[in-house]
Write a structure and sequence with these properties.
It contains eleven helices and 14 strands. With 303 residues, the protein is an alpha/beta fold. The two termini are 37 Å apart. The model has no long low-confidence stretch (mean pLDDT 93). Bound molecules: adenosine-5'-diphosphate and magnesium ion (MG).
Length: 303
């Protein structure tokens, strides 16, 4: 299975939301990493055919379908897609169960089965998906009574209906607390086997350990595509631990150095800065091993 995005472009007036975007995706997790406004949702809306690109094409192929433009495939491609939008529309007076049923119907799930069999299969499928995101116990609650995190997991559950082979998740962990973030991250890692998963996020830790490939997006353009390890390696020799002297103060140091972290040693009260610099900023500085976050901050500046 493969999706090829070729030279996609989208402009809003003078704003170039997406510019000459090309990438091939095979099963595995791809992260679309970039700050707000970098074009992540625009790309996802184009892939899911909610938005027309000004230029460029998308091709799909698998063992049953030879390489073909997804617009020509139309409903056949959409049937393979699971999509969690950044701002999903949900009706507050629906129950969780009804909403899942409504989405299953929109997706035409098991449409070739006879009515009774179809109802049973849909019910089983909804139960499985709600169980996966730990919402089965609130299946009969109204959506308006759910917390933000629960709504987010419901949006994820509907994207997984019918075992789609291509899953598009737009900021799936937005609004979740740290524990829920980890749960969603582990769930995504589990469902990614044999499927293409594309996750948009501006949170490095959401994808650092689960994505096989990270697409860094800045102002609609790809800055880099590589694994987390490869991207981190680019910062080798550029990340420093800088112990703060008694007469130094943090804001003065921030004027001179790219400070990405401040750490206080509780035992002796010493403050250490994490600094990005091509050369050792001072004699006292010692090199640190770089992380993906260092690279993100290097590319995008302070956030
Ligand atoms: N409907 C729209 N009309 C005008 N500009 C838009 C519209 N949607 C997005 N944009 C602009 O396109 C750029 C990319 O936006 P978006 O794809 O939403 O980024 P992201 O999802 O990474 O935050 C931004 O500059 C945004 O302001
Ligand atoms: Mg977005």
């Amino acid at each position: 299975m493969k999706i090829s995005l070729e030279h996609l472009q989208k402009k809003y007036g003078k704003t170039c939301a997406l510019s000459d975007f090309s990438i091939d995706m095979s099963p595995g997790i791809y992260a679309l990493l970039g700050p707000n406004g970098s074009g992540k949702s625009t790309l996802m809306n184009i892939i899911t055919d909610n938005l027309k690109a000004d230029r460029g094409e998308i091709f799909y192929e698998d063992e049953n379908i030879p390489r073909e433009n997804v617009l020509t495939l139309g409903p056949r491609f959409r049937a393979l897609l699971g999509y969690m939008p950044q701002y999903p529309a949900m009706y507050g007076n629906f129950t969780v169960w009804d909403y899942m049923w409504y989405m299953a119907t929109l997706k035409d799930l098991y449409s070739s089965e006879k009515r009774r069999k179809r109802k049973q299969l849909i019910a089983e499928e909804i139960e499985k998906r709600l169980c996966e995101v730990e919402l089965l116990e609130v299946a009969h609650s109204k959506i308006s009574h759910l917390s933000g995190g629960m709504k987010q997991r419901l949006a994820l559950a509907q994207a997984l209906l019918g075992k789609p082979s291509v899953i598009i998740l737009d900021e799936p962990t937005a609004g979740l607390d740290p524990k829920q973030r980890i749960a969603v991250r582990n769930l995504i890692a589990r469902i990614a086997l044999d499927r293409i998963v594309l996750i948009a996020t501006h949170v490095v830790t959401d994808i650092e350990f689960i994505a096989k490939s990270i697409i860094l997006l800045k102002e609609g353009k790809i800055v880099d595509v590589a694994s987390a390890a490869e991207l981190s390696r680019k910062m080798e020799g550029k990340v420093w631990d800088l112990p703060l002297g008694a007469e130094d103060d943090v804001s003065a140091m921030e004027k001179n150095y790219r400070v990405v972290g401040i750490l206080k040693n509780e035992e002796n009260g010493n403050v250490h800065l994490r600094v990005l610099s091509n050369v050792a900023p001072t004699m006292q500085a010692t090199p640190l091993s770089p992380t993906l976050e260092d690279y993100y901050l290097f590319v995008f500046g302070k956030v």
